[in-house]
Design goal:
The complex is a heterodimer of chains A (739) and B (156). With 739 residues, chain A is of the alpha+beta class. Chain A has 19 helices and 24 strands. A 7-stranded mixed sheet of chain A has the order 9-10-7-17-14-15-16. In chain A, strands 12-20-19-18-13 form a 5-stranded mixed sheet. A 4-stranded mixed sheet of chain A has the order 21-22-23-24. The relative contact order of chain A is 0.11. The chains are: A alpha+beta (739), B alpha+beta (156). The complex binds FE2/S2 (inorganic) cluster (2 copies).
Chain lengths: 739, 156
C-alpha cells in the first residue's frame, strides 16, 4: 500500500517556505523612477527575482502568478525552457509567495502568460546572454561562435555548462531587456503540447491542494458565519462548546465566531453547537427576486458615466429604423468544487498563511489591516485550491484561519469552509441589466448603437492600497475594518462595462454605465467580470438587428467588422460548423453564432452553438464549434482545454444558474439549490486554433464565455422564433417565451 | 471513543473516533490519504467517492461504524505514480483535468463502471458519472479518458 505522507520539510519544500537568497525589490518605488520594461519586469526589475541557475544542473524560475487549475505554470515553464535553452524537465517553477517571488498582483484577467510570460521571456533571454558572455571570456571564444543545447555551451572543441559558468555570473542587478527573446522559428518547447506539471500528483492522490496540507500539531477549524449578511450576534454559549470533546479554542470577536478542535469532525460538531446556541439580530434588507430584482437595481443610486462615445447617437438623413431590447443576468456563483480553505499559524507575533488566494500580495495587506498588525508580520504562500474562476471565498478563509490561529497557542490550524459557507458567503457575479438600442439606415446597415448597463461592482478583491479591508473576517470584528467602495476598472479592459464597447465599426455609438456601488448582495469578480453579460447582450442584439435587417447573422457581422483577426475567427467558426446562410430553425432545433475579443484586448473567439428544445421546454446544447486566435500559441492543448472548459461553464451559467434569496437570507446553500451542468448536459465541443506566430500570446481563460452565451441565445431564437433575454434559460422561462 | 478496524487499500488500520464520524475524515486525516475530497458532505457531488467492497460509495456520508471488516479502496489504492492504474494513466494521457479537484472521484466512479462494464458506450459513461460534478468543464476529456482506459483494460 502506498500513502503519500509528506513530512513538514517535504511539504514546505514543495509549497514554499525555504530561505531565499535573491532580491525582492520594492515594486512600486523603483517602477516610478525607471523606464518601463516588458510585462511584469516593469514592476519587478531585479533579474535574480525571476531566474536562478542552481548547482544541481537545474534552473529555478519565479513567478508572482499562481496555478489556478488552468496550466499557467506549465506554460510559463515552457517559455523559460525555450529562452534558456534547457530541457523542460530541468525547469523548476516557484509561484506566488510574498516571501520569495515577484509581486505580480492578482492572477486574473487571463493576463498571466502576457505579463509573467513576457517578463520570463526577457529575463531568461538576458540570463542566457550573460551566461554566454561569461563562457566566452573563460573559453576565449567569441559569443557568436557559442551554441547552447540543454544548458551545455559549446564551441568546438571546447565546452562548458551553465552550471559551471553560473558561479561567475551574478543576476543581482536590474534587467535591461536588451537581450531579445528568440524568434518563433527557434522555439522547441513553446507551441508543443507538453504535459501539465501538476497532473501526475492529482491523478494519484499526491499532495496538491491547500486542503491536503498537514502540519505537525495541526488543528481543524470551522467558522460560524452570521445567518445573513448584516446580522449581529446577540449571544452564544461559548462555554458549553469549549467543554465539547476535542475543542481547543472558541474565538468570538464581534460577529466573528470560529472554533478549533483536535479532529475535523469535532470541529464540525462544535461549529454546529455554536450555530444552534447563537442568537442573531437580522433585518430583511435583501432586494426582491425574479424580474423585480432588475426594477429594483435600476432604482438604486448609481454613479453614471459615459464609457465610450462616437458622435451623437441620433442618426440623421433617410429613413431610420430604431430597434430596442433589454437583457438581464442574475447573481451567479463561482461554485468552486472545493469549498475555500486555508492553513494559518501564529507564532511570536508573526502570521504564516497558506492560501489559494489569487493574489497573495494584496491579501497580505488586507490581512494586516484585519489582524491589526504590520504587513511585515504576515507571510502569504500560495497553495492550490479547486478551480475558483474569480474571487471566491479563498481570501476570506485565509483571514478566518489567521484570526482563529491567534487562539491556538502557536499550533497551526486548517480552516475549511463548509459547502453552505461557500455558497452563501462567496461574492457573486453581479446581477446586470443591459439596455440596447440600434438604428438601421435604408440600406439596412447599423448607423448607431447604444449599450446602457446597470451593475454592481465586479471587483471587491483585496487590493494593496485601498483604505478598507475586503476580507469578511475584518468586517465582522467588534472593531471592524469595513470595505471601501471600489471603483469600476478603467477602459479598455473595463469591469462592469467589460466588452460593452463593440469591436464592430458603427458610425455612432454610446456606451453608458450606471454603477450601483451599494451591494445588498455581496458581489465581486466572477470569470470575465461584466463581459459574459455584455457580450450576451451585444451579440444577441446584433443578431436581432440582423434579423430585422433581413440579413444572415454571419454576413451581417462581417459587413460591420473591419478587424481582420475578428473576421477570420467568425469565418472559420462558421465554416467548421457548416453554417448555412439564412437557415431557419424548425421549432425544436436551431443554430446561433457569436463573437468577442475578450476585453477587446485578449484572444479573439467565435462560437457556433447548436441547440434542441424538447417538449418539456428543456434546452440542450448539442454541439459547440469555436475558432480562436490567441496570437502566438504556447501550448495548443492548454488553449483548447481552456476554451472548451469556458464554453461548458458558460453554457451551465446560461441554462441553469442563478443565486436564490428571500428578503432576508441567501437561500442557495447546496448543489441541490444551485444545479450546474452534469455529464448529460455537456455538448460536444470543437476548438479550432489560428496560430499567429508573429503576434504576442493572448490570454484564453476567459475568451469563450461571452461568445458561448450569445451563441446559445441566438440558437434558441433560431430554433423557436422567440428571443430569450432573461438569463438563465430554464424550462419555465423558455415555456413563458414560447407559449 | 471506540476503536474501529478498517481494511484500507489492502492494509488493516485502526482509528478511534465517534461512531458517526464520516469515513472521509478518517481517510483524509487519520490515514493521510488525499484522494477522496470534501466538496459538499451531502452526497451531492461525488468528489469523495471511494470503493467499499468494490462498490463506489460516498465517503462523506458513510459512518465509520458501518465499515467493520469491510475493504475500502481509495485513489491511492488503485495505482501509484510509478505504477499507475490504466484509468490514472488515461487521465494523464487525455490531460483530463483542469484544477483536478474532481479527478479522484471521477476515477473511482469510472473504475466502478469499468469493473462491471468493461467496454462502456459514451452514454453509459456519461450516465455512470452523472452524479460527479466538475466545475471546470473537463467532462468530455474525462469521457475520452474512460474510453481510452477501457481500451487499455481490454488489452491488459
Ligand atoms: S463530498 Fe461526498 S458527495 Fe460531495
Ligand atoms: S477539473 Fe476542476 S472540478 Fe473538475
Amino acid at each position: 500500500m502506498t500513502t503519500h505522507t509528506l513530512s513538514r520539510r517535504q511539504f514546505l519544500k514543495r509549497t514554499g517556505v525555504i530561505v531565499s537568497t535573491f532580491t525582492l525589490a520594492g515594486p512600486t518605488a523603483i517602477a516610478q523612477q525607471s523606464t518601463p520594461l516588458p510585462g511584469g519586469l516593469s514592476n519587478n526589475r531585479m533579474l535574480d527575482g525571476w531566474v536562478r541557475i542552481n548547482s544541481n544542473n537545474t534552473v529555478t524560475v519565479f513567478t508572482g502568478k499562481c496555478e489556478i487549475g488552468q496550466g499557467i505554470l506549465t506554460a510559463l515553464a515552457q517559455i523559460a525552457a525555450d529562452e534558456l535553452d534547457v530541457a523542460y524537465e530541468r525547469v523548476e517553477i516557484i509561484s506566488a509567495d510574498t516571501a520569495r517571488t515577484p509581486n505580480e498582483g492578482m492572477t486574473a484577467g487571463s493576463l498571466s502568460v502576457e505579463n509573467s510570460g513576457t517578463a520570463l521571456r526577457f529575463a531568461c533571454a538576458e540570463a542566457r546572454g550573460m551566461l554566454l558572455a561569461a563562457a566566452s571570456r573563460k573559453l576565449n571564444v567569441a559569443v557568436e561562435k557559442l551554441s547552447v543545447a540543454d544548458g551545455a555551451i559549446s564551441a568546438t572543441p571546447v565546452r562548458m555548462t551553465y552550471w559551471e559558468v553560473a558561479k561567475d555570473v551574478s543576476f543581482k542587478r536590474e534587467a535591461t531587456a536588451t537581450f531579445k527573446p528568440k524568434p518563433v522559428a527557434q522555439h522547441k518547447v513553446i507551441g508543443k503540447n507538453v504535459p501539465r506539471l501538476d497532473l501526475p500528483a492529482k491523478v494519484t492522490g499526491g499532495t496538491a491542494y491547500v486542503q491536503d496540507m498537514r502540519l505537525p500539531g495541526m488543528l481543524f477549524g470551522r467558522v460560524v458565519r452570521p445567518p445573513s449578511y448584516r446580522a449581529t450576534l446577540q449571544s452564544v454559549d461559548e462555554a458549553a462548546v469549549r467543554a465539547m470533546p476535542g475543542v481547543v479554542a472558541v474565538t468570538r470577536d464581534g460577529n466573528f465566531l470560529a472554533v478549533a478542535a483536535e479532529r475535523e469532525e469535532q470541529a464540525i460538531k462544535a461549529a454546529q453547537a455554536l450555530r444552534a446556541s447563537a442568537k442573531w439580530n437580522e433585518t430583511p434588507d435583501l432586494p426582491p427576486s425574479g424580474l423585480a430584482l432588475y426594477d429594483h437595481l435600476k432604482k438604486m443610486p448609481a454613479r453614471d458615466s459615459v464609457i465610450n462615445t462616437k458622435t451623437p447617437v441620433n442618426a440623421s438623413g433617410g429613413k431610420i429604423t430604431t430597434i430596442e431590447a433589454e437583457y438581464t443576468r442574475p447573481f451567479q456563483a463561482h461554485g468552486a468544487l472545493g469549498p475555500s480553505a486555508a492553513v494559518a499559524q501564529f507564532q511570536d507575533g508573526k502570521y504564516q498563511v497558506w492560501t489559494h488566494s489569487q493574489g497573495v500580495f494584496p491579501l497580505r495587506t488586507d490581512l494586516a489591516k484585519a489582524l491589526k498588525t504590520t504587513v511585515a508580520n504576515v507571510t502569504c504562500t500560495h497553495v492550490e485550491g479547486a478551480g475558483c474562476y474569480g474571487h471566491n471565498g479563498a481570501d476570506d478563509a485565509a483571514c478566518d484561519a489567521a484570526l482563529l490561529a491567534r487562539a491556538t497557542n502557536g499550533r497551526p490550524v486548517k480552516l475549511q469552509w463548509m459547502r453552505d459557507d461557500e455558497f452563501v458567503w462567496e461574492p457573486y457575479g453581479s446581477a446586470m441589466i443591459m439596455k440596447m438600442q440600434a438604428q438601421l439606415d435604408e440600406a439596412k446597415n447599423i448607423v448607431s448603437w447604444q449599450h446602457e448597463i446597470w451593475s454592481h461592482p465586479h471587483n471587491t478583491r483585496p487590493t494593496s492600497n485601498a483604505a478598507g479591508s475586503f476580507v469578511l473576517g475584518g468586517w465582522h470584528l467588534a472593531n471592524p475594518v469595513p470595505p471601501v467602495v471600489p471603483n469600476n476598472g478603467p477602459q479598455p479592459a473595463g469591469a462592469a462595462d467589460r466588452n460593452a464597447v463593440p469591436l464592430y465599426d458603427f458610425p455612432r455609438q454610446n456606451i453608458l454605465l450606471h454603477y450601483v456601488t451599494d451591494m445588498p448582495v455581496r458581489t465581486s469578480a466572477l470569470r470575465t467580470l461584466g463581459a459574459y453579460a455584455n457580450v450576451f447582450a451585444l451579440e444577441s442584439f446584433i443578431d436581432e438587428v440582423a434579423l430585422a435587417a433581413g440579413a444572415d447573422p454571419v454576413e451581417f457581422r462581417l459587413r460591420h467588422m473591419k478587424n481582420p483577426r475578428a473576421r477570420a475567427v467568425i469565418e472559420l467558426a462558421a465554416q467548421k460548423a457548416g453554417w448555412k446562410p439564412g437557415a431557419k430553425g424548425n421549432g425544436t432545433s436551431g443554430r446561433g453564432i457569436a463573437f468577442a475579443q475578450y476585453k477587446n484586448l485578449a484572444c479573439y473567439c467565435a462560437v457556433v452553438a447548436d441547440v434542441t428544445v424538447d417538449r418539456t421546454d428543456n434546452v440542450r446544447v448539442t454541439r459547440a464549434v469555436s475558432a480562436v486566435d490567441a496570437g502566438l500559441i504556447i501550448n495548443p492543448e492548454g488553449i483548447i482545454h481552456q476554451i472548451e472548459g469556458g464554453i461548458i461553464q458558460s453554457a451551465s451559467w446560461t441554462l441553469k444558474e442563478q443565486v436564490k434569496f428571500d428578503r432576508q437570507r441567501i437561500t442557495t446553500r447546496s448543489w441541490a439549490d444551485y444545479p450546474i451542468f452534469t455529464f448529460n448536459d455537456v455538448p460536444a465541443v470543437e476548438v479550432h486554433l489560428i496560430n499567429m506566430p508573429n503576434e504576442r500570446p493572448l490570454g484564453t481563460g476567459e475568451g469563450s464565455q461571452g461568445p458561448a452565451v450569445a451563441a446559445i441565445a441566438n440558437a434558441i431564437a433560431n430554433a423557436t422564433g422567440k428571443r430569450p433575454r432573461d438569463l438563465p434559460f430554464t424550462p419555465d422561462k423558455v415555456r413563458a417565451l414560447t407559449s | 471513543m471506540p476503536d474501529y478496524i478498517l481494511r484500507v487499500n489492502g492494509t488493516q488500520r485502526t482509528v478511534s473516533t465517534d461512531a458517526d464520524t464520516p469515513l472521509l475524515y478518517v481517510l483524509r486525516n487519520d490515514f493521510e490519504l488525499n484522494g477522496p475530497k470534501y466538496s459538499c458532505g451531502m452526497a451531492q457531488c461525488g468528489a469523495c467517492t471511494v470503493h467499499i467492497e468494490g462498490r463506489a460509495a460516498r465517503s462523506c456520508v458513510t459512518p465509520v461504524s458501518s465499515l467493520a471488516g469491510k475493504a475500502v479502496t481509495t485513489l491511492e489504492g488503485i495505482g501509484t505514480l510509478d505504477k499507475m492504474h490504466p484509468l490514472q494513466k488515461a487521465f494523464l494521457d487525455e490531460q483530463a483535468a483542469q484544477c483536478g479537484y474532481c479527478t479522484s472521484g471521477m476515477i473511482m466512479a469510472a473504475k466502478a463502471l469499468l469493473d462491471s462494464t468493461p467496454k462502456p458506450s459514451d452514454a453509459q459513461i456519461r450516465n455512470a458519472l452523472a452524479g460527479n460534478l466538475c466545475r471546470c468543464g473537463s467532462h468530455n476529456r474525462i469521457v475520452r479518458a474512460v474510453q481510452r482506459a477501457a481500451g487499455a483494460v481490454k488489452g491488459a
